[in-house]
């Protein structure tokens, strides 16, 4: 029998990259495939939860049995997440762009004698930190991810404290790992209790194990 420990609970999940406009036809983004976040949304639904998946642009089908909200920018993702609250659990697997272009051009930038344009950036809102520090709607459990290419666990510990999350799922996304876009993941679960490293497994298995862990911690 499938155990359904999240029946009656609402879970919000973010997934995929964000897209930050430069002009009407160009944007900045990253290599996130959304596979891990989508797998988490699916695993939460299989565990009986009512799931809202807020996702940036990905080449994945909407998981069955999940309410999917499609967004592009970090700011749109934050708005959609806030609208999905209150929730018992929030899991932030999206690779949110840290910066957006300060002044998005209203018309396509053109090549010309003035040479290449200079772009100025401003920081995007931190969705995880905003929700983890929310004065009235903080979910009971807030889970963040840390995609790092070096000092994976040290960076994750720092992130746990700085962002106010209960758990950080840290993974090494250095190109040699094949994690970004791949189907497998090696993760470290970092919490106030310490660090637990899970054997390399499929993103679907990471998702199921994470949902089981989170359900146990409620
Ligand atoms: O600081 P860093 O981007 O490495 O933190 C990663 C974690 O924070 C992930 O859980 C990611 O989804 C979340 N995040 C966010 N909003 C941002 C930046 C990161 O929710 N603007």
Provide an overview of this structure.
Catalyzes two sequential steps in the biosynthesis of coenzyme A. In the first step cysteine is conjugated to 4'-phosphopantothenate to form 4-phosphopantothenoylcysteine. In the second step the latter compound is decarboxylated to form 4'-phosphopantotheine. This is Coenzyme A biosynthesis bifunctional protein CoaBC. CTP binds at residues 98, 108, 125-128, 145, 159, 163. The chain has 218 residues and is of the alpha/beta class. The chain has one domain (10-102, 119-217): CoaB-like (Rossmann fold, 3-Layer(aba) Sandwich), CATH 3.40.50.10300. Helix content is 26%, strand content 28%. The chain is built from five helices and 14 strands. The strands form four sheets. The protein has an eight-stranded mixed sheet with strand order 5-4-1-6-9-10-12-13, with helices on both faces. α4 (152-163) links the parallel β9 (141-148) and β10 (167-172). The longest helix is centred in the C-terminal third of the chain and has 15 residues, at 203-217. It is globular, with a radius of gyration of 18 Å. The structure holds cytidine-5'-monophosphate. Cytidine-5'-monophosphate (C5P) is lined by residues 14, 74, 92, 94, 96, 124-128, 144-146, 159.
């Amino acid at each position: 029998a499938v155990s359904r420990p999240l029946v009656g609970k609402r879970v919000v999940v973010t997934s995929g990259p964000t897209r930050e406009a430069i002009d009407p036809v160009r944007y900045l983004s990253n290599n996130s495939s959304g596979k891990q976040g989508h797998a988490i949304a699916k695993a939460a639904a299989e565990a009986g939860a009512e799931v809202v998946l807020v996702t940036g642009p990905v080449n994945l089908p909407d998981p069955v049995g999940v309410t999917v909200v499609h967004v592009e920018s970090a700011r749109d993702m934050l708005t959609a997440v806030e609208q999905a609250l209150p929730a018992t659990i929030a899991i932030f697997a999206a690779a949110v762009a840290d910066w957006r272009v300060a002044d998005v051009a209203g018309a396509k930038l053109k090549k010309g004698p003035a040479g290449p344009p200079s772009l100025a950036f401003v920081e995007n809102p931190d969705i995880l930190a905003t929700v983890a520090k929310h004065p009235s709607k903080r979910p009971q459990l807030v889970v963040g991810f840390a995609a790092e290419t070096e000092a994976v666990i040290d960076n994750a510990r720092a992130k746990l404290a700085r962002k106010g999350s209960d758990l950080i799922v840290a993974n090494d996304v250095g190109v040699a790992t094949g994690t970004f876009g791949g189907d497998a993941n090696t993760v470290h679960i970092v919490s106030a209790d310490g660090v637990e490293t899970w054997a390399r497994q499929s993103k679907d298995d990471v998702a199921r194990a994470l949902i089981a862990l989170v359900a146990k911690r409620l």
